[in-house]
Write a structure and sequence with these properties.
The chain is of the alpha+beta class. The protein is 56% helix and 16% strand. It has ten helices and nine strands.
């Protein structure tokens, strides 16, 4: 047999020439993900950049990073490097913050069975380069859309608004409510197109004026007590402005058309960042069976969907002699 020294030498040569290359080939082929190609990175960066919100963009980025590297952890950091860097001898990949995305730190790639490599770092740097370009394109697109919406809003205000005001000045008692309602609709549409952020206090002033006028034309008295100072400081997103405006219009429409009421009250309060809208009338009420899916009106169905879209709730409590609407909408505000 061979002496120990030559045998050890032959074994080491075998390990170096056969085992290690075969192990690396097997790992790269079957265990570790192959490097993502440039066109795939570009497609993924567009998917991240054009997500509808910063929250969705962050989730999509985390999902992509997890698919690429299968790290044991992806943590958000208060501060990060200026560019993608490998840290802790390959155990960690640190990512910089970017626009509305926080800095991230990935640890223990491939479920702790590998280290981050310079190739991994370069792939993520390329991803971030694509993300920056995609973000710039999205912002340019958003600016173009906003400019066009503002132009359309201005045209509506100047052309249609002038015609409606002329019609209102010539209207009689029978046609005046229709012109006033059309003007209210036009103002709301112009505000929506322009993307204006009204204070909640301003919004309530508009819907209170509109509701009071509509109920007065139907000979229904409206009681609307003053709201708290906290409500006056709110500024809502445009979607929630539109939802709240729709709530009031549908409630008032139901009171006018179906209740037979002579008096209605509306109260607005704020509790634990929830806007509470309560509307009560002294009408005839109705049976709960009227709210079954096959009998509920289209307006109430549409209203319920709008409220659910902003994570709100609506309940209707019909009793003989009155009907009560309770609506809850998260404020999600800046003050």
């Amino acid at each position: 047999g061979l002496n120990r020294a030559p045998a050890l030498g032959i074994s080491l040569i075998g390990v170096g020439l056969l085992y290690l290359p075969l192990r690396d080939w097997f790992w790269g082929k079957f265990i570790k993900s192959q490097p993502i190609k440039a066109h795939e990175l570009l497609a993924e960066s567009l998917h991240v950049a054009f997500a509808p919100s910063a929250f969705d963009r962050l989730n999509r980025l985390k999902t992509l990073l997890h698919r690429l590297f299968k790290p044991l952890q992806i943590n958000q950091e208060v501060t990060g490097p200026t560019q993608v860097e490998i840290e802790s001898d390959g155990l960690t990949l640190a990512l910089p913050a970017m626009k509305d995305l926080p800095a991230l730190k990935l640890t223990h790639p491939f479920e702790g069975s590998s280290l981050f490599t310079p190739q991994d770092r370069e792939s993520v740097r390329q991803l971030f380069s694509f993300l920056n370009e995609a973000e710039a394109s999205r912002e340019s697109y958003d600016r173009g859309v906003k400019a066009e919406r503002v132009r359309m809003a201005q045209d509506l205000h100047d052309d249609l608004g002038a015609r409606l005001l002329s019609g209102l000045s010539l209207s009689d008692d029978k046609t005046r409510p229709s012109f006033e309602a059309a003007i209210d609709e036009m103002r709301a549409l112009v505000s929506e197109l322009a993307g204006n952020q009204l204070s909640f206090n301003h919004l309530l002033g508009e819907v209170r004026h509109e509701s009071q006028r509509r109920l007065k034309n139907a000979q229904i008295e409206l009681e609307w007590p003053l709201h708290s100072d906290a409500v006056e400081k709110l500024v809502l997103s445009h979607l929630k402005q539109k939802t709240i405006r729709s709530c009031f219009r549908e409630i008032v429409s139901n009171i006018i058309r179906h209740s037979g009421a002579t008096r209605a009250s509306i109260k607005i309060t704020l509790s634990d960042d929830i806007i509470l809208i309560t509307a009560i009338d002294n009408g005839t009420g109705f049976s709960l069976s009227d709210l079954s899916p096959d009998r509920i009106g289209y307006g109430l169905k549409s209203l319920e969907k709008r409220i659910q879209a902003v994570h709100g709730k609506i309940s209707i409590d019909p009793l003989p002699g009155r009907c009560r609407f309770d609506i809850q909408i998260p404020s999600d505000v800046t003050s």
